[in-house]
Design brief:
Blueprint (H helix, E strand, L loop, with lengths): L1 E5 L4 E6 L10 H15 L6 E6 L3 E3 L4 H9 L2 H19 L5 E5 L2 E3 L1 H8 L2 E5 L3 E3 L13 H8 L1 H10 L2 E3 H7 L4 E3 L4 H13 L3 H14 L4 H19 L2 H11 L11
Parallel strand pairs: 2-3, 3-5, 4-6, 5-7, 6-8, 7-10
Antiparallel strand pairs: 1-2, 8-9
Helix pairs in contact: 1-3, 2-10, 2-11, 3-4, 3-10, 4-5, 5-6
Length: 262
């Protein structure tokens, strides 16, 4: 489900490892990832963390079956489920060590939030990205603060509203990833970035991450309020009729009822 590999330099690679589900973010995987990040945060021997996906997919986003079940659950349970995902994203962004997303393949929905929450993102030129929530009757609530900070408000309007897929060149142009390289060169590109990170002082890197938050006007209280607001937002929307129809149509492999052929 989550594979953790340490190398002698202090680089930890976290691999989303649910190939049978295209590495979708189940509740169990979210919990494992959160716990692992918490553990690594206190380990002085860890210099950087790389996040990637098993096989030829980075991550298909949220587990759709679990999303539908959460939407049908009592409101408090629905919101608690949302909050766990929001907490994981916040833990990832505030990790004291530098974080690198190595996007080896498709990244949809919540996976784009993972990428945006990492400090650095490299993608294979074959990777595809989509903020596809709207096509399921959902909104990208919990990932929105991270994605908007990465790509800006204007780009977010297009990709949030349309749910279109984009290629790696577009992801690079709008600022979602820092580099897009040939799939065969992805590991070498990651090694180059990791080598540069290892040349920096770890304490200074942790301070820089805190400094960026401070310099952009963010606070612990403000971040906590945003986390709570976005968790409530997605919980409310996914309990509604459009989300029930969108998630059901996806699982039943049919078009949602709001779709009309041209």
């Amino acid at each position: 489900m989550l594979r953790t590999d340490h190398d002698p330099r202090g680089i930890v690679t976290l691999t989303l490892d649910r190939p049978e589900a295209r590495n979708a973010l189940s509740a169990a995987l979210v919990a494992r990832l959160t716990d692992e990040l918490d553990t690594l945060a206190g380990d002085a021997g860890v210099r950087a963390i790389m996040l990637t996906g098993a096989g030829d997919v980075f991550c298909a986003g949220a587990d759709i079956g679990e999303m539908r079940a959460a939407g049908a659950a009592p409101p408090a349970q629905n919101e608690a489920d949302s909050r766990r995902f929001a907490t994981m994203l916040e833990r990832l962004e505030r990790q004291p060590q530098p974080t690198l997303a190595l996007v080896n393949g498709a990244a949809f929905g919540g996976a784009v939030g993972l990428i945006a929450a990492c400090d650095i993102a490299l993608a294979a030129t074959s990777a595809r990205f989509a903020l596809s929530e709207v096509r399921l009757g959902l909104v990208p609530a919990m990932i929105s603060p991270y994605v908007i900070r990465a790509i800006g408000t204007r780009e977010a309007r297009r990709w949030f509203l349309s749910g279109e897929a984009m290629d790696a060149a577009t992801a690079l142009r709008i600022g979602l990833v820092h580099e897009a390289v040939d799939p065969g060169s992805l590991s070498a590109a990651a090694d180059g970035v990791l080598g540069a990170l290892l040349a920096g002082a770890p304490g200074a890197q942790a301070e820089i991450k805190r400094l960026i938050r401070h310099a952009t006007g963010r606070s612990d209280a403000g971040d906590e309020a945003m986390l709570a607001d976005t968790a409530r937002w997605i919980a409310r929307v996914r309990a509604g009729p459009e989300a029930r129809e969108g998630l059901s149509s996806f699982l039943e492999r049919r078009k949602p009822r709001w779709t009309r052929d041209a």
